[in-house]
Design goal:
The chain is an alpha/beta fold. The chain contains seven helices and 13 strands. It is about 35% helix and about 25% strand. Catalyzes the phosphorylation of pantothenate (Pan), the first step in CoA biosynthesis.
Length: about 250
C-alpha cells in the first residue's frame, strides 16, 4: 500500500493506492505545515510501503511531512520531479524542470487514462492550462491567477470596499453579468478562466481538426464547471492518478 500526496500551493490532497486502485481522496488546507486534522486522519493507517509526493507547496510543508513520515513509520517520503520525456509524454519546455510537477503528473495521467488530444485545466491557487497531443507531446500551456487570488488582488488594489463575493449559482442558466458589484466580481472571476479554457479548447480543435477532451481538475475545478461547456470532464484526482503511475 502506497500513500500518495499532492501538495499544492495552499491545499494538500492524499489517497492510498493498492492493487492498482486509488482509494478515497482526502483534502485539507496545509498553511505551510501538516494540519492536526490530517494527522488525526492518518492515525489508524497501517504503515504504508512507500510515501510518494508531488510538492509545489514549498520547503516548509515538505520538511514537516518528512518529519512525520520518519517519526511515525520510519519512512523517508519520495518527492517526485518533472521529467522531460517519460512514460510516453514529452514536455514542450526547453527546461522541463521548470514545469510544475503537478502539471507533469496530470499530463501523464491524461495520456494513459484519457486517450486522444486533451486540454487539461487545473484550477487552484493558480489555474494552469496544458495542451496534450494524442501521441504524448505536450504542446505548452498558460497560467492564470486562481479565482481567490484574482478577487483578493482586485479588492486590495482598488477602492472597492471589501464585499461578500460569492460564485454565481449556475452560469449555464443564469445571465453572464451582474447588477451589483459583489456579483460582478464573483461572476467575472469564474468566467475569466472558464472563457480562456473554452478559447484554448476551440483553438486546439481547429488546429487538429478533431475533438480534444477538456479535463478539469484541481481544488477549484468544480467551481469552473458550471461556466464550461457540457463537454468538460471533471477529474478531481488527476494528479494523484499521475502519482500512482510513478509510485
Amino acid at each position: 500500500m502506497d500513500l500518495l500526496l499532492d501538495i499544492g500551493n495552499t491545499s494538500l490532497r492524499w489517497a492510498l493506492y493498492a492493487d492498482g486502485r486509488l482509494g478515497e481522496v482526502g483534502a485539507v488546507r496545509h498553511f505551510g505545515g501538516l494540519p492536526i486534522d490530517l494527522l488525526a486522519a492518518w492515525e489508524p493507517l497501517v504503515r504504508p510501503t512507500r510515501v510518494t509526493v508531488a510538492n509545489v507547496g514549498g520547503e516548509a510543508v515538505a520538511d514537516a511531512l518528512t518529519q512525520v513520515c520518519q517519526g511515525r513509520w520510519g519512512l523517508a517520503p519520495r518527492f517526485v520531479a518533472t521529467q522531460g520525456d517519460a512514460l510516453g509524454v514529452k514536455i514542450a519546455y526547453v527546461e522541463p524542470a521548470r514545469l510544475g510537477v503537478d502539471r507533469w503528473l496530470a499530463l501523464l495521467a491524461a495520456h494513459h487514462q484519457f486517450p486522444g488530444d486533451a486540454l487539461i485545466v487545473d484550477a487552484g491557487t493558480a489555474v494552469t492550462f496544458d495542451l496534450l497531443a494524442a501521441d504524448g507531446r505536450h504542446l505548452g500551456g498558460l497560467i492564470l491567477p486562481g479565482v481567490e487570488p484574482m478577487r483578493d488582488t482586485l479588492l486590495r488594489g482598488t477602492q472597492i470596499p471589501r464585499l461578500a463575493v460569492v460564485d454565481p449559482v449556475d452560469e449555464r442558466i443564469d445571465r453572464p453579468w451582474a447588477d451589483d458589484t459583489a456579483g460582478a466580481i464573483g461572476a467575472a472571476t469564474i468566467q475569466a478562466p472558464a472563457a480562456l479554457a473554452e478559447r484554448l479548447h476551440r483553438a486546439f480543435a481547429e488546429r487538429t481538426g478533431g475533438a480534444p477532451r477538456l479535463l478539469v481538475t484541481g481544488g477549484d475545478g468544480a467551481r469552473l464547471l458550471p461556466a464550461l461547456s457540457s463537454d468538460a470532464e471533471p477529474v478531481p484526482d488527476l494528479v494523484l492518478r499521475g502519482l500512482a503511475l510513478v509510485s
